[in-house]
Amino acid sequence: MIMAATALHQAIGTLYSHGCFHQEHGTASLRLVSNGFRVDIRLLRSESYQSRKRNLVVSQASTSQTSVSNPVSSPSKNATTESRKKSNEAALILIRHGESLWNEKNLFTGCVDVPLTQKGVEEAIAAGKRISYIPVDVIYTSALIRAQMTAMLAMTQHRRKKVPIVMHDESEQAKSWSRIHSEETKKQCIPVVTAWQLNERMYGELQGLNKQETADRYGKEKVHEWRRSYDIPPPNGESLEMCAERAVAYFKEHIEPQFVAGKNVMIAAHGNSLRSIIMYLDKLTSQEVISLELSTGIPMLYIFKEGKFVRRGSPAGPSEAGVYAYTKTLALYRQKLDEKYQ
Ligand SMILES: O=C(O)[C@H](O)COP(=O)(O)O
User: Fold this and answer.
1) To bridge 270 with a disulfide, which of 176, 200, 222, 242 should be the other Cys (CB 3.0-4.6 Å)?
2) What are the tens digits of pLDDT across the range 162-175?
3) If we measure between CA atoms, which residue out of 147, 172, 141, 86 comes closest to residue 255?
4) How far apart are CA 297 and CA 97, in angstroms?
5) Interface predicted TM-score (ipTM) over 0.85
């Protein structure tokens, strides 16, 4: 217990001394391993020390070493299969899209398909820089352009320089007309899968309305309830619970098997579809998810290891290097990229 308390104090001290708070929402999260204990922290700037303690989980750290398949070298098909079999670690990057033109105007957007602002473009590029040393084998985006722009712009910054290619499986013809006829070229591509299930929650009759004017008209509390309660939907729209039903089902059915196969995944999606996925990954309760806020263009990193998702960081600092807690495998990946692309 004394060791756990020491780890706890170190962790809180590190959070404050590194200023690890999301500027916009005053939230922070961190996982530290100290003295054989793993400490998870998620807190709001306004939380008291007592409530901070409640958000802490201290558990025995695993000492096992892991490895992911190495996407830098081009191993033979058998070698790839072999290394994936051995692999028990894979990366998951989550990014909420950069600022959209309706974020800028403070309008409820939901499933309306609005592009990024110039600031959103810059946020996506900055996000790409922060994840430029983290392996990506497959990308999932929503069906909405703001998430797709974010994924593509972020990938322009990746050190590995693979080409993200949007998959067109909507019909046999679309599939066949977008076929790549070179195995060599295929190896230099990253498939981008678009799925409506990852779309923003459908905001019903609030879509296109100004958030401030809606609060003035219906009251701040009512609008907050529509925006942040777990199971109360906005008029003719989806509650977070309804959004989670489709987003998490898609994640479990289509994305989770990728980790089991040792693939590293990036998901570019939306405030509420990602909140529901994080609720699932971090096992948040419907009460806890209410205070989870995601800033635009801030990538979060998880590691899938031994069937579990472990949060490794969410950058609030100026660069990825000081923010993500690299595993040995990720550090090795980074070193190989540096050697190869110096
Ligand atoms: O759809 C929207 O308006 C935003 O992307 C998310 O809005 P919220 O923060 O009000 O849920």
Assistant:
1) 200
2) 999 999 999 999 99
3) 141
4) 5
5) yes
